[in-house]
Amino acid sequence: MIRISIIIPTLNEASCIGRTLRQLSILDPPAWEVLVVDGGSEDGTVAIAQAAGVQVLFCTERGRAIQMNQGAKAASGEVLCFIHADTWVPDDLVEIIERTLADPGVAGGGFVSLMAGSSKTRWWMSLHNFLKTYYAPLLFRPHLFFQGLRLLFGDQAIFCRRTDFWQCGGFDRTLAIMEEADFCLKLVRQGRIRQVNRIVQSSDRRVARWGFWQATAIYLYVGFLWGFGISPTYLKRLYRDIR
């Protein structure tokens, strides 16, 4: 059994971190460790995580890429799995990851993201997110697509071997957005990237706030501009944090 370290970057996630950690506590088999890397939460995030008995790391700089890199440095598992605080995973997560990485030609992977909230499941948005994993690299990096590139995003619970993570240099700390997609461009040099045919569920809070059409427009606009090389610093202005 390989040791899997789960890393969760947080910033004011008191509304959802408790549920996420409860689900991680019943993984079968269990994860080797769960690390919460907090970027300076001003709500009850840290207290909830500490009460759950997981290790909490304090990051002096905010930013998912920075926080996830800090978690990766502290992790002791052979495999790293990055999960958002509002993402809920299947209880056989560890077995799925181990089975996927048993293929030496696979460098990493992620899951199918199902977006849902308290009142509805966002089926069409979830379908688009599934297809985006394939059509985005096919459109913007076709030569890498045929080498096994799949563009994964944070709500897909990305995982890879720790050695490959650092061989790629980790996440680019200068990126405020699209850091996972950028990482996939580097990770594919180590092997194929897979979208595993299993679901993780993520909060629909952005879509609930923006509305379906505005959210779709923002996702497409940001994605295409990134594909054409527009600075993520500019793109971040269009994609504000929602808690």
The CATH top-level class label: Alpha Beta
Overall pLDDT: 90
Sheet having the most strands: 8 strands, mixed
Uncertain stretches: none
Determine the number of helices (DSSP H or I, runs of at least 4 residues): 11
Report the β-strand fraction as a percent range: 15-25%
**Strand tally:** 8
CATH topology: Spore Coat Polysaccharide Biosynthesis Protein SpsA, Chain A
What strand line-up does the widest sheet have? Answer: 3-2-1-4-7-6-8-5
CATH architecture: Alpha-Beta Complex
Number of domains: 1
Backbone shape:
globular
Question: For the record, what is the CATH homologous superfamily label?
Answer: Spore Coat Polysaccharide Biosynthesis Protein SpsA, Chain A
- Structural class comes to alpha/beta
Question: What is the share of helical residues?
Answer: 40-55%
Transmembrane segments: 210-235
Protein name: 4,4'-diaponeurosporenoate glycosyltransferase
Family: Belongs to the glycosyltransferase 2 family. CrtQ subfamily.
Subcellular location: Cell membrane
